[in-house]
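Predict the 3D structure for this chain.
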Amino acid sequence: MSGFYHKHFLKLLDFTPAELNSLLQLAAKLKADKKSGKEEAKTHW
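Done. Predicted structure below.
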């Protein structure tokens, strides 16, 4: 996730296809973790 820290999502062209894929995978993991009750508290923001 460190690659997205402090990076604004203004438009799709700001990201490479690999970055978009990573972002979507991260979103799916976070959503699944939240649904299953495994969500981690934010400690570094």
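The CA atoms of residues 1 and 45 lie 13 Å apart.
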